[in-house]
Fold this sequence. Notes:
The chain is mainly alpha-helical. The protein has one domain (2-88). Helix content is 94%, strand content 0%. The chain starts with a helix and ends with a helix.
Amino acid sequence: MMTDDYKFDDIFERLNELTLDVTNLKIQTSTIGTTQLTISQLLTLTTGLTSDMRQVKADIRELKGNARNQDASIEEILRLLRLRNSGDN
């Protein structure tokens, strides 16, 4: 479970960094105007963001899968305990 917490923290940290990058580029674009440099930076950032978002989505899918597996394991443990306890009476 600690690993999942770390992954969520990592995902949110990366999303915050990406948000700051986008905000900085928006400020830069409005200050400098649309120049070739700004367009190039935006395209580079967009390419990077797309890649990062794919990784974030993959991480989230993995975390959801882990959570489903843990839920299924817990349900199975509870079922076995109930079965064992019902046989003790």
